[in-house]
C-alpha cells in the first residue's frame, strides 16, 4: 500500500471512531509530532557529524577536559 492509500485509510478509520478521548490523543500526537532533526540540518552540518562519527569509530577521541580547554 502506498503512502496516499495509507493516509486515506487512516482518515477513514479516524472518522469512524466515536471515542472523544481517543480522538483528542490522536490530535495531540499529530500536533506534537516533530520533524526529524537530521533533515533540518544543512548538508555541511550532516557531513561534519558523519566525519565526527567516523573519527570516533577509528578511536580518535578527545577528553572532555581538553575539549573545554580548547574552546575556552
Describe this structure as you would to a colleague.
It contains five helices and no strands. With 72 residues, it is mainly alpha-helical. It has two domains: 34 residues; 30 residues, no CATH class. The mean pLDDT is 90.
- Give the overall shape, derived from the CA principal axes: elongated
Q: What is the count of β-strands?
A: 0
Structural class: mainly alpha
The share of residues in helices is over 70%
Q: What is the percentage of strand-forming residues? A: under 5%
- Chain oligomer state: single chain
Brief descriptors of the model:
mainly alpha
Short description:
The protein has 72 residues and is mainly α. It has helices at 3-16, 20-32, 37-40, 43-57, 64-71.
Topology:
Blueprint: H1 3-16, H2 20-32, H3 37-40, H4 43-57, H5 64-71
